[in-house]
User: What shape does this take?
Amino acid sequence: MDEIGGINPAAKSWLQEIEPKHWSRHAYDQTIRCDHVTNNMTEAFNSMLGTHRASSYLELLEFIRRMVMRKFQDRKEECEQWNLALPPRVNAKILKNSKESRVLTIIAAGNKEYEVLGPNEGYAIKLGEYSCQCGSWQVSGIPCRHAMAAISHHCGKAAVKDKITAYVHQSLTKSAYMQTYNGMIHPIPDQNRWLEVPACILVEGQMEHIDPPPRTVQPGRPKILRKREQDEGPKGGKSGTVTCKICNQNNRTSTTTSSSHQPIQQQSTFEGSSSQPPPTQTQTQMDFD
Assistant: This one.
């Protein structure tokens, strides 16, 4: 917090008013087993809806149902092709932490407890409790680099690959992934084949048909982009370099810089004098006369 206050005192005051469990990784709930908090999931979902957000409620819900139904099956087929007991992203993090643990010094204390020393840090690891003093293992559910050094010493470097699954949280394994997408969303017929709803909906004290509220259309085009915060910058556009086809220079085009492009005169080479321009048709006739 002191480093943040040195850069921006207002940011420090703003963070102090928020509970650390909402923004600081060391205070995250360890039962969730997730070390990343972001709202990109909602933004990605809105992007997937695309132009369907301007449709009616029924059409929008039908699009979401078909999209989720297809996603469930795609994820299930993808998971069945995994050759390891861990998902690819979890396995990639373990390989990264294992590579970083090679520079650490291990001191075994017995009863699956270790003290791992680094260039500028030292932490205590308890393999029996699946905990590291840095807190990363408890929050993410994936062994950190300190835990990987202790696991490699306890199991042996040759057996780490086969036994590492026992030190990863159960919710991050392939079996848990398969269980998540084990269900399915059954297809339903087209709206034209749905059963007709009775004219009178059974509502206590209501004997007349309930009509939906009238649909009001706001003037102008419907907004597609989400509303950004006051301190949030605009959406970044595509960037690139434009190369002119005439002069082959960057950030220039033949349309905007046509006045600066001069045509190149071709010179013909004649015997005796290559620097003189080619004779015209009138000069050639005069020479023969």
